[in-house]
């Protein structure tokens, strides 16, 4: 038996490995299985080059759990190591790079790379690690390396009779969760689901049918429990995959999910290497809940589902897989954010997504429109947050009007231009976020020949603001923000049938009613066919308040601004109200007209609504 001391510049390298390099202890299993995959892949490469004679036989990696002995073993049948290689790779290379790595990043708490020092992550969960190995080389002898998490190790011969390496972890007291079957199964499913070599964890029972027809019988058999899919869809050529294959893979990633709308297969090898499949989920009106569904892999090894440094923010609404060995994973996040390769990857993915959407719109406009209610959130989010995406997608960004018709926004601008251009030469895009609530406003706007859009998503406030800035020459105005004559502002002036004195009297009556609500009373000489009283919410103030709400800010700066607009030319105002000699009855009429306006805005509920209905019956008598 040979004893030795690992040469390290830092005596406390083991505590650093245990506590610092890997904030998440569960990562050890990914590291050790990845090493086993590397050893197996190298063996296959040598065999492919004819450097190993004969059949290499079984190459599956086994995970063996022994609760009684408190050990977890990762067994591969890869190239194995000689005693010299053990000395080199486990004692010299790993530790010189470990020391350098720790020195370089000791002040950076946000290390995300867990690669390169994989083997030593074992000491985060093990009080002792044994490596039993036998090289593929002719005449090689088996050796066992053992270490108890300090610079001392032992190296001795063993009688191992099959090629490959067993890494045996003697699980420490604090980490005994990793002696549970379900915990190991969970980690294998998370980190090893698509590794390129079969990984076996115990056995499972399968039911098979023997015989045919009436004589068929079912029989249960024990089979190897292979936990991974070594040849996932994203590694295949798009030409070799059907729509059903893509949907099946989506189900593999997200079992029991609603099927996706469509997908994009990424496949590029210059100027960087990247493969993957991105799926468009059915978003509907949801937003935040869908994030962190893209999984990042490096050569089929799971890395993270926190991809915001690699994928533009708006694309995190997508689901799927990105696999790239060219994304530097053993560095800090700040480096990742400024890395040139990452920026190129981000730009490539954005372009690919925009091109796919443009192609869908061009090829099948009807099909694209039918998906828009699910796609709209995603496209709008992209247009707001990414200028290059905006430039590519403005041609197929749709808006929907109250009659359920869809238009590309630039085309819609042209459609309503003639009727809805105001005195400032801006095209006014009228909209509602609640068609039922705004029914009377919509009816009045339609009677004037206006068209009304439905913009009812949480993102639409930002979208409108952005489009006003980018598209130019347009302004969005909600149908309840002003009286119908003023939604599209013109220079036309109407005359009031009331004298100035009568107008002052009417204004006073309404101000007395709304004094406690903080509303502003305005008099306007509208058409006699328009509503007698209208409650409006000025666009600018309301929109600013809503934007503040979305950003979680205080509403203090923007009061709930409401205007009560009295139509001085309506018969109920010009005749009934003004000509009523009894002051109390005058107040009653004014209150009734104000409540009628509240009813139109769906502001009356419960007891207040019942009281108004009763008053209406008396009033109409």
From TrEMBL:
CDD domains: HATPase_Hsp90-like. SUPFAM superfamilies: ATPase domain of HSP90 chaperone/DNA topoisomerase II/histidine kinase, Ribosomal protein S5 domain 2-like. InterPro entries: HATPase_C_sf (IPR036890), HATPase_dom (IPR003594), Heat_shock_protein_90_CS (IPR019805), HSP90_C (IPR037196), Hsp90_fam (IPR001404), Hsp90_N (IPR020575), Ribosomal_Su5_D2-typ_SF (IPR020568). The keyword Nucleotide-binding applies. Gene3D superfamilies: 3.30.230.80, 3.40.50.11260, Heat shock protein 90, C-terminal domain (1.20.120.790), Histidine kinase-like ATPase, C-terminal domain (3.30.565.10). Residues 24-175 form the Histidine kinase/HSP90-like ATPase domain. Signal peptide: none annotated. Keywords: ATP-binding, Chaperone, Cytoplasm, Nucleotide-binding, Stress response. ATP binds at residues 31, 35, 76, 81, 165, 333. The keyword Chaperone applies. Pfam families: HATPase_c_3, HSP90. It comes from the Bacteria. GO terms for molecular function: ATP binding; ATP hydrolysis activity; ATP-dependent protein folding chaperone; unfolded protein binding. Belongs to the heat shock protein 90 family. This is Chaperone protein HtpG. It comes from Phaeodactylibacter luteus.
